[in-house]
């Protein structure tokens, strides 16, 4: 390891360890983990100490970010619980079916109007990259106990599902840009690999892993430690197979998460813990290890985002990019959300709350890094727009999460006391509330 590389690793370790020591205090404050790690990244990147930059560290940076997103997609899919949608299904369905396409179109049109430096399919690519949401950026608002369950479930499900729904569109647009690594496959080749081969590999890998683990656990052949490691192998295997065959590791990991959870849940019940004298069953914490690793990699991805994308982008900031970022976080999100929820019976306060906390985060920054790493004309301009928008969103959503959650929670408690049949209370009191992994809620 070179001297500069050693200093970079030391700085990353110091930031990670420092935040871990004050994580409980930070969780109760206005400083979210994405805010802290992004700011630290700007400090150690080219705009600060110069310990980490994309020109010299592109390979490790991109590998880290892609691994983080793949694991997040796997855990999001594996932890979705269908029973939590029985009453409040209308909110995520409306946001995904109506709101997501309108957000992509709106973001692309705005980029075409405001950013003349982007040509061809680049404005549409920016719109796609900035369409998915990330609950971890504004988790204090999304997972606040005072927030009605239907809103928590809706924002949760939107974040857990829209990440992967945009990937086929992203892959097609990337293949349409001359000079990219995906261009040689062509649009038809990308569609075959992303929409057919990658889901198939994810389905087989995840399903097989779930079935084998279920049977081994029921027979008492797997230890507690290794049981929680197997999902890591399943997620990594599905993504690696898809990447090796020219497909999407993200799509494969996402489908593998669904298949793994379905196969594991459909199998025989687990046997007694090997070391339990009273014959009690083992605690079902199979996904614990992959959740913890996903949490670490996601935080580190925000750090490298601040270093290699946001820091350099701030040195090229202009009024057009800043205007796009502000409008993307407000109008481009708010109008599609309002249209999607029209006629739903939700009060204006709920619609506004849902619209504001459609936070951009890990999916957008990873896809932005993928585009910048292609080193084609327009890639840097697209990366600058994505970086400024995500960075501004991390700041504003992080700062506003606690106060707006408190204000909206007080409004809801008052409103439901006056009108118990309020539409927002339709999904209240659902048991086993766990759409996304625990680390994305605390």
Automatic annotation (TrEMBL):
InterPro entries: Cation/H_exchanger_TM. Keywords: Antiport, Ion transport, Membrane, Transmembrane, Transmembrane helix, Transport. The chain crosses the membrane at residues 6-22, 29-52, 58-79, 91-112, 190-213, 234-264, 293-314, 321-341, 385-405. The keyword Transport applies. Residues 14-404 form the Cation/H+ exchanger transmembrane domain. The keyword Nucleotide-binding does not apply. It is found in: Cell membrane. It is a multi-pass membrane protein. This is Cation:proton antiporter.
């Amino acid at each position: 390891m070179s001297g500069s590389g050693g200093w970079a690793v030391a700085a990353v370790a110091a930031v990670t360890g420092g935040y871990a020591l004050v994580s409980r205090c930070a969780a109760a404050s206005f400083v979210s983990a994405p805010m802290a790690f992004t700011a630290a990244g700007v400090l150690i990147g080219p705009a600060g100490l110069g310990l980490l930059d994309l020109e010299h560290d592109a390979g490790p940076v991109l590998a880290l970010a892609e691994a983080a997103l793949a694991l997040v997609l796997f855990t999001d899919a594996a932890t979705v619980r269908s029973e939590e949608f029985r009453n409040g299904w209308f909110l995520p369905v409306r946001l995904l079916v109506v709101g997501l396409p309108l957000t992509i179109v709106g973001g692309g049109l705005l980029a075409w109007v405001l950013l003349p430096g982007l040509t061809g399919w680049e404005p549409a690519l920016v719109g796609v990259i900035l369409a998915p949401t990330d609950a971890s950026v504004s988790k204090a608002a999304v997972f606040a106990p005072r927030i009605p369950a239907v809103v928590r479930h809706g924002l949760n499900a939107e974040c857990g599902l829209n990440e992967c729904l945009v990937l086929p569109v992203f892959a097609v647009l990337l293949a349409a840009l001359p000079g990219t690594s995906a261009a040689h496959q062509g649009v038809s080749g990308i569609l075959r690999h992303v929409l057919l081969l990658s889901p198939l590999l994810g389905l087989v890998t995840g399903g097989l892993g779930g079935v084998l683990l279920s049977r081994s656990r029921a027979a008492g052949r797997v230890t507690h430690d290794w049981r929680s490691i197997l999902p890591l192998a399943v997620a990594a295997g599905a993504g690696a197979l898809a990447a090796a065959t020219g497909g999407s590791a993200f799509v494969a990991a996402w489908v593998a998460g669904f298949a793994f959870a379905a196969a594991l849940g459909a199998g025989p019940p687990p046997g007694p813990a090997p070391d339990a004298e009273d014959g009690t069953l083992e605690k079902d914490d199979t996904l614990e290890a992959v959740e913890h690793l996903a949490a670490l990699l996601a935080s580190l991805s925000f750090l490298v985002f601040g270093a290699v994308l946001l820091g350099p982008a701030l040195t090229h900031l202009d009024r057009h990019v800043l205007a796009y970022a502000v409008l993307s976080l407000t109008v481009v999100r708010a109008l599609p959300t309002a249209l999607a929820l029209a006629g739903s019976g939700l009060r204006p306060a709920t619609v506004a709350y849902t619209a504001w906390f459609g936070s951009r985060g890990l999916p957008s920054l990873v896809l932005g890094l993928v585009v910048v790493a292609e080193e084609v004309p327009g890639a840097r301009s697209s990366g600058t727009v994505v970086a400024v928008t995500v960075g501004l969103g991390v700041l504003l959503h992080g700062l506003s999460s606690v106060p707006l959650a408190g204000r909206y929670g007080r409004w809801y408690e008052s409103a439901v006391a006056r009108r118990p049949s309020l539409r927002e209370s339709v999904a209240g009191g659902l048991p086993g509330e766990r759409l996304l992994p625990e680390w994305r809620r605390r």
